[in-house]
Design a protein that fits this description.
It is a single chain. The protein has about 180 residues and is mainly β. The chain has 3 domains: about 5-45, RNA polymerase II/Efflux pump adaptor protein, barrel-sandwich hybrid domain (OB fold (Dihydrolipoamide Acetyltransferase, E2P), Beta Barrel), CATH 2.40.50; about 60-140, OB fold (Dihydrolipoamide Acetyltransferase, E2P); about 140-170. It has no helices and 15 strands. It has strands spanning about 5-10, 15, 20, 25-30, 30-35, 40-45, 60-70, 75-80, 90-95, 115-120, 130, 140, 150-155, 160-165, 170. Strand 13 and strand 14 (about 160-165) form a beta hairpin. The structure holds zinc ion. The site of zinc ion has 8 residues, from loops.
């Protein structure tokens, strides 16, 4: 069943139909049959019936940043494709800091933070998915203030600076041109 715990990232390599939760446990993303290759320790869930819609290389996807286990990596829960059509099940994607910008970025926190909604491009063939937000059209589409939780506004149409209109806090991200709120002041 979707959500069922299959194992942990210490035990197995997640394949298609499997996602990693915030505590590092592998869970079934789709209803189906669990299949473990003992040689590669790769675990997949083969869906029952019908052809599932899965994110593939070059797909532009929407997701939510739900974890940043290291300073150079963010974990993304993929929620839909760029036209907001949902995939079959839940998919976890990894975003490495080297795929976050064309300029050198020290920390993943300079480009995305937990709770951000992002648009990214799939650059891997197999699960776990690897995302890039380097393209000019990709990046954060909605972010919230780290201080007070209010939505952040882009200070201008091309800026990577976001401002909180409630508390005045300023933060940076790699911002997508489709970012939802732009400040008028
Ligand atoms: Zn604020």
């Amino acid at each position: 069943m979707p959500g069922q715990v299959i194992g942990s990232i210490e035990e197995f390599v997640p394949g298609e139909g499997v996602y990693i939760d915030e505590r590092g446990r592998l869970r079934a993303a789709v209803p189906g049959v669990v299949n473990i290759d003992m040689k590669s320790r790769r675990v997949v869930v083969k869906p029952l019936g019908g052809k599932p819609r899965v994110p593939r290389r070059n797909d532009v996807v929407r997701g939510i940043v739900y974890g940043a286990p290291r300073e150079d990596i963010a974990l993304i829960k993929v929620i839909a494709d760029d036209r907001m059509r949902r995939y079959s099940g839940e998919y976890t994607a990894v975003l490495h800091v080297s795929q976050s910008s064309d300029t050198r970025v020290e920390s993943i926190y300079d480009v995305v933070r937990i709770g951000d909604y992002i648009r990214g491009t799939v650059i891997s063939d197999l699960a776990p998915l690897v995302l890039s937000i380097r393209r000019p059209s990709d990046g954060v589409v909605l972010a919230f203030c780290s201080n007070c939780g209010a939505p952040l506004y882009r200070v201008s149409a091309s800026s990577n600076t976001l401002v909180c209109l409630s508390c005045g806090n300023k933060e940076t991200r790699k911002v997508s041109p489709i970012y939802i709120y732009v400040s008028r002041s």
